[in-house]
Amino acid sequence: MIETVGLTKKYGSFYALKDLNLTVEDGTVFGFVGANGAGKSTTFSILATLLQPTAGDAFINGQSVTKHAHEVRKQIGYMPDFFGVYDQLKANEYLDFYGASYGLKPKEREVLIPKLLELVNLEQKRYEYVDFLSRGMKQRLCLARALIHDPKILILDEPASGLDPRARVEMRDILKELKAMGKTILISSHILPELAEMCDSIGVIDSGELIAQGSVAEIQAQLQSEKMLRVKTAGPTREAVLFFENDPFISKIVESPEKQLIQFLYRGTEEDQLKLLQKAIERQLPILSFSEEETDLEDVFMAITKGVESK
């Protein structure tokens, strides 16, 4: 389990992190969402024992990152947003070097490295020099490096940064496989829809402060004082629009007669929404469908951070 308690990092009068408290349960994928400079990399550097906090502490399976850094490093695999590779080494030599650094015996490395290359879809590039690999391949190779000592926890800082769409899909599929293997994964990104798909829960950080935490559905529910409803009709929309205009919970009606579609914001409860549909049926309006449009993680992120930026 990963836990931070009052984690703070200050540079002069500037707070890179301010009283950060979060918990990531074993075997889950936690998405850390925030714009550039929000505090994601600072948090990850502290968790990886590379940076000392000004105040507070963080714990990896009960071990303090400030007091038991050596023990913490055995349990984590860390992939920074900017990483170095040794260009004069081949892919298998690169992993062999890091395996030796972690104290793995030659026979162990001989068995492990082909498995890791297969996991990250680089088995065909085993004897390729690192500097000849594409950016996406280098990213996957560095993920294999983070796995070389079979850590329980992965801390991945922007692992899909700078990748093309195909490479992002490949990275996402690998992370899903790692989750299925029981790894606990803490991942940061601004590629918000992808996080929504793969994460069990998310935390939104802005200006060094955690401003929302929970499942995607929970955070959406907190924000959605107004829901976007979508009504499809079997005929002309005018009669239905006139009906919905009289409801006190409805605003911003958008009519698309050519598509026989009506959309509007609704601020009533689910019970109110049910009563509205019942009234529409009693009026015998030609309604084919009546549904709530889902808000994706990007909409949620923009809505939350808009409030912070306006302070």
Automatic annotation (TrEMBL):
InterPro entries: AAA+_ATPase (IPR003593), ABC_transporter-like_ATP-bd (IPR003439), P-loop_NTPase (IPR027417). SUPFAM superfamilies: P-loop containing nucleoside triphosphate hydrolases. It comes from the Bacteria. Residues 2-232 form the ABC transporter domain. This is ABC-2 type transport system ATP-binding protein. Keywords: ATP-binding, Nucleotide-binding, Transport. The keyword Nucleotide-binding applies. The keyword Membrane does not apply. GO terms for molecular function: ATP binding; ATP hydrolysis activity. Signal peptide: none annotated. Belongs to the ABC transporter superfamily.
